[in-house]
Amino acid sequence: xxxxxxxxxxxxxxxxxxxxxxxxxxxxxxxxxxxxxxxxxxxxxxxxxxxxxxxxxxxxxxxxxxxxxxxxxxxxxxxxxxxxxxxxxxxxxxxxxxxxxxxxxxxxxxxxxxxxxxxxxxxxxxxxxxxxxxxxxxxxxxxxxxxxxxxxxxxxxxxxxxxxxxxxxxxxxxxxxxxxxxxxxxxxxxxxxxxxxxxxxxxxxxxxxxxxxxxxxxxxxxxxxxxxxxxxxxxxxxxxxxxxxxxxxxxxxxxxxxxxxxxxxxxxxxxxxxxxxxxxxxxxxxxxxxxxxxxxxxxxxxxxxxxxxxxxxxxxxxxxxxxxxxxxxxxxxxxxxxxxxxxxxxxxxxxxxxxxxxxxxxxxxxxxxxxxxxxxxxxxxxxxxxxxxxxxxxxxxxxxxxxxxxxxxxxxxxxxxxxxxxxxxxxxxxxxxxxxxxxxxxxxxxxxxxxxxxxxxxxxxxxxxxxxxxxxxxxxxxxxxxxxxxxxxxxxxxxxxxxxxxxxxxxxxxxxxxxxxxxxxxxxxxxxxxxxxxxxxxxxxxxxxxxxxxxxxxxxxxxxxxxxxxxxxxxxxxxxxxxxxxxxxxxxxxxxxxxxxxxxxxxxxxxxxxxxxxxxxxxxxxxxxxxxxxxxxxxxxxxxxxxxxxxxxxxxxxxxxxxxxxxxxxxxxxxxxxxxxxxxxxxxxxxxxxxxxxxxxxxxxxxxxxxxxxxxxxxxxxxxxxxxxxxxxxxxxxxxxxxxxxxxxxxxxxxxxxxxxxxxxxxxxxxxxxxxxxxxxxxxxxxxxxxxxxxxxxxxxxxxxxxxxxxxxxxxxxxxxxxxxxxxxxxxxxxxxxxxxxxxxxxxxxxxxxxxxxxxxxxxxxxxxxxxxxxxxxxxxxxxxxxxxxxxxxxxxxxxxxxxxxxxxxxxxxxxxxxxxxxxxxxxxxxxxxxxxxxxxxxxxxxxxxxxxxxxxxxxxxxxxxxxxxxxxxxxxxxxxxxxxxxxxxxxxxxxxxxxxxxxxxxxxxxxxxxxxxxxxxxxxxxxxxxxxxxxxxxxxxxxxxxxxxxxxxxxxxxxxxxxxxxxxxxxxxxxxxxxxxxxxxxxxxxxxxxxxxxxxxxxxxxxxxxxxxxxxxxxxxxxxxxxxxxxxxxxxxxxxxxxxxxxxxxxxxxxxxxxxxxxxxxxxxxxxxxxxxxxxxxxxxxxxxxxxxxxxxxxxxxxxxxxxxxxxxxxxxxxxxx
Length: 1219
Prior knowledge:
Blueprint: H1 2-11, E1 13-16, E2 19-22, H2 30-36, E3 42-45, E4 48-51, E5 62-64, E6 71-73, H3 76-89, H4 133-140, H5 150-165, H6 191-214, E7 231-235, E8 242-244, E9 251-257, E10 268-272, E11 277-281, H7 283-286, E12 300-301, E13 326-330, H8 333-337, E14 351-355, H9 356-364, H10 368-375, H11 385-388, H12 396-404, H13 414-418, H14 421-426, H15 428-456, H16 460-469, E15 474-476, H17 479-510, H18 588-591, H19 616-619, E16 623-624, E17 627-632, E18 636-642, H20 661-667, H21 686-700, H22 703-706, E19 725-731, E20 734-738, H23 757-762, E21 765-766, H24 769-793, E22 797-799, H25 807-810, E23 819-821, E24 865-871, H26 875-888, H27 896-903, H28 912-920, H29 924-935, H30 940-950, H31 956-970, E25 973-977, H32 983-988, E26 993-994, H33 997-1006, H34 1011-1014, E27 1019-1021, H35 1026-1036, H36 1052-1059, H37 1063-1093, E28 1098-1103, E29 1106-1112, H38 1116-1137, E30 1153-1156, H39 1175-1180, E31 1186-1188, H40 1190-1197, H41 1206-1211
Parallel strand pairs: 9-13, 12-22, 13-14
Antiparallel strand pairs: 1-2, 3-4, 5-6, 7-8, 7-11, 9-10, 10-11, 15-23, 16-17, 16-21, 17-18, 18-20, 19-20, 22-23, 24-29, 24-30, 25-26, 25-27, 28-29, 30-31
Helix pairs in contact: 1-3, 3-5, 6-15, 6-16, 6-37, 9-15, 12-15, 16-37, 17-24, 26-27, 26-35, 26-37, 28-29, 29-30, 30-31, 35-37, 37-38, 38-40
């Protein structure tokens, strides 16, 4: 038992094999106590209970701890198996036990110790605090007490040793108190069975309806003629057309058409069920007539949309439909849903929408490179043939061609896109037939793609999550139109100010024409300074009856009426040209900025000037690192670096086309030449620095991009170490360096773009004078609204009539404005199944200097309601970490990356973002971006570009070195190891281990075999994240990659690409898919769990890692508690699916749940911006909300989550009583 005694002496506690074994911390030798005490006895030293082990104890021996009812039974066989497992990890440690007063060995008090699991706290083998015992047993059931295998015991001990080696295993922090939460009884023996049961209850009825639709390959035959009748009309076989209030069937396929010229409201819709067809005609279409087109309405009532669950004039749901599961299918069905009347009502029924486009993306989604290849007109590459057979773009025509093998005629669509409403009415039959054709095509696609989806995503939670995501809802009130008006007004004011300042800069630059001063200007020297002369006539034209374009007739002028001093000019009036030139005497570049007199809204001066013009950076006299900006057509925007010598430089023939070297040498901070100031460390020479830099560049293989390490005249200076990109170009006596682009070698189209906002703020990109600074500041303020303005103004808002308001709100009077935005969310819009929506899901948080960035905060809850939401803390990092922990160590926090994720501290620099920041020399926020990019599959080159984006002054060599160092520390090195049967032969061929793919191939060829035959799959070693990346690549490279939580399969297009041998080509995409698709599984679990716990809470939207719900104000704290419990159950499910039947307390609950009247991210953020200068409190009367951790939430909600009752229970999965 020496190995066991040694481990107890070092660790103080051993909780392996399902047992907790501890010893006295102040004892001389564990063995001495074990030999002196009897089994089951305890001793107290220093008021600490000590459990004593007797190796001769019988199986019935009981070691009592502080609580008599809590005990472990330890048998001799158990102790022998533990000793054997520990001995393999510490084979010779038992002989090196520290002796009393030994100075050469570390004191046991100096080593990190595990906390006793006595009392309310539980810790695992590496000091990670776990769930309280009550929650642990409640979630994991019988599996909570199962004994781990000896393999997992050995893995845990290896993990502890690795953490000690890296200096990460420290004394545990202050324990996390038990919040006292009591959960409802699970719907199964453990959390895994619970989610399967709840997911089936929520998605099962809808899956049955969908399968009923898909059972028929075609819808019933459409009618031969459609009736132009307002509202819905039912067409059943062998029955006359029948007006109906809405389709009352439980499942139907729907398509809605909009006439763009008449606005965004629907004008026509068709639907099909297994028994009949339906057609809906809007009142505007039925009343349309020839003549001038009516102006589209700017405000829509919910009654302008088509009904699916209510009578036309009613404000409530029809009897029997509110709680009955019903499903509507469409292709990009969110577009159709946004034009359904009841979707704007405050209450949500049991109607759900299913998108065939989302189903197709799940089954056959494309990587970005594959999508570009399909859109390209070039011939297909041979290696793409395999995946092209199962791939298609997302349009209905492309998807129909893939699954049904037939083209789809979409020519009639132009009638709705470009035609007028009267034209649609005149061609009503063909327009309706086109709409019905889309319904039939969608039906056929559903029949093909639904079985594939259910096969590849078998867990019921996957479908339930898609159904819930399809019900996004954003209520708005009177604050919404106020926000739009304020944002537009401020936008116009700032834009006008910017134009005035740019016009002033253009006027100042125009003055350089005098004495050819522009030739000496570092910016304006290359502009077109040609002027247009005013040519006068030498002879008088023939007399005409009236003047045209400046040829003025005699009767228009009476010199006698002129002042005396101007009468002598009358004789010269005939010399004026017939067509007067625009601004004669002004340079051409200036004339291009001016409108001709007579133009609509003409104003004198350079009215056309804007920040998007090519001349604007020169007017603002912008510099990069102190060098003037310059534009070259082949390379885009860059800057000029002058040099003193002109050897090898061809002089320009036109002196005006040469940059002014004298002025450039005077203004630029660094030049090359004798006596020039270069960045040389003390004690080094310029030649030595140049030699070192040339060697580093050649070794890193970046000479081609740096373009000039050979020292020729066309090369850039070797002393330059900024962020400019060498391209081998020169302009006159200057080197030309490109501005760095976020995508690497691409050319920069405008330095005023938002990608350069960081460079402006850092002072790397700057302008001359206060006017330039103000223009740049205005540009920063306008950037968000300018990029999102059209999408925000185009939001379709349905305002509720009084009849559609809930009874509790009708009493507030006619002054209440309540409407809603139905976000057009594609439930699975990307390869990773992330939901996609162009405006709300990408909305940034409010920033003081960004006009319109308070967008989210202007979505306000209706009176008597509140938003409840939370941000999943480091969701994707935790997913990646737990995958590595489960695979490599079998315990939470068993890898360095997992430990940093769970126990790393920002305060002492042990969390992963702080570690990466120190390695890469960046801020912690910037390190967070680097970490996520690496986990998503980005490589060192992308990290290098990010580093240079964070710090534009960072040179290529230094950025490359930092990225390499960061990847060596985090990801490690990729190692090829020979298989056991080839190990001896590989040693003779050069070694059984190598870090080079080329060397592995060479050694395999020397043995007459392939690399895969001699070497196993390469693995990452030596990095803090090596175990995690090994597990991600194992999943990504599997024959049928599947998400680790819900078992969803990878797209067929990527699976086919893998089987065709494109492993390396698509590996980053597949690694990214594992993490992000796992995060989608997590979101689906949360949505299903929240609906189980709070069936009346209405899902609003998911913002990446955030979720927001709308609840009644009286239920806000119970909903907040349900969100905390949702996080707990979802993470516990993920852990159990990976074989970890426990969960760290640090990730069990949200850091905070926001309870607020606005949809802002932070409940205490006032969201003051240029368009909302007074903030939410003063400007809109919105008080700060609440940010509740689990302890505050338990206190406010009572700590007990009870099963829903009454009407709520009818909509929820059945819940049992609270335990």
